């Protein structure tokens, strides 16, 4: 009798184990299906591709901006040099005016 009960318990355990494995497999399949649906619904890959294209397109704009900033810096440097030259000339003009005024006296 113990043998029959043992065989019955083993059979029940094997059946339960088999049903559990089927349920786990079913749940895994359902999760995979859900993940595919979410991915399709959210269009994540399309958004990522669009973002990558947009980012790559900005590289040219960034390079042009950098070149323009360098040109502006060169112009600023030249304008500062011109300002110094003009200031020096203005002070020389004032000195010349004073000398002219002194000569006229």
Q: Ends: how far apart?
A: 145 Å
Q: What low-confidence regions span 5 or more consecutive residues with pLDDT below 50? A: none
Structural class: mainly alpha
Total beta strand runs: 0
**Percentage of residues assigned to helices:** over 70%
Shape: rod-shaped
**Percentage of residues in strands:** under 5%
Biggest sheet overview: none
- Radius of gyration from the CA trace? 43 Å
The DSSP helix count reads 2
Number of domains: 2
List SSEs in N-to-C order: HH
Mean pLDDT over all positions:
85
Describe this protein's structure.
This protein has 105 residues and is an all-alpha fold. It folds into 2 domains: 1-41; 55-104. The chain contains 2 helices and no strands.
How would you sum up this structure in a few lines?
With 105 residues, this protein is an all-alpha fold. Helix content is 97%, strand content 0%. It has helices spanning 2-42, 44-104.
Keywords:
105 residues; mainly alpha; 2 domains; rod-shaped; membrane; lysosome; BORCS7; BLOC-1-related complex subunit 7
Helix and strand arrangement:
Elements: H1 2-42, H2 44-104
Family: Belongs to the BORCS7 family.
Keywords: Lysosome, Membrane
Subcellular location: Lysosome membrane
């Amino acid at each position: 009798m113990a043998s029959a009960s043992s065989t019955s318990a083993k059979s029940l355990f094997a059946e339960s184990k088999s049903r559990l494995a089927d349920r786990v497999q079913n749940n895994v399949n359902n999760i995979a299906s859900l993940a595919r649906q979410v991915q399709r619904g959210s269009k994540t890959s399309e958004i990522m591709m669009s973002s990558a294209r947009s980012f790559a397109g900005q590289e040219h704009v960034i390079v042009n901006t950098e070149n323009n900033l360098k040109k502006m810096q060169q112009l600023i440097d030249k304008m500062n040099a011109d300002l110094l030259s003009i200031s020096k000339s203005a002070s020389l003009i004032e000195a010349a005016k004073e000398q002219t005024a002194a000569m006229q006296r």
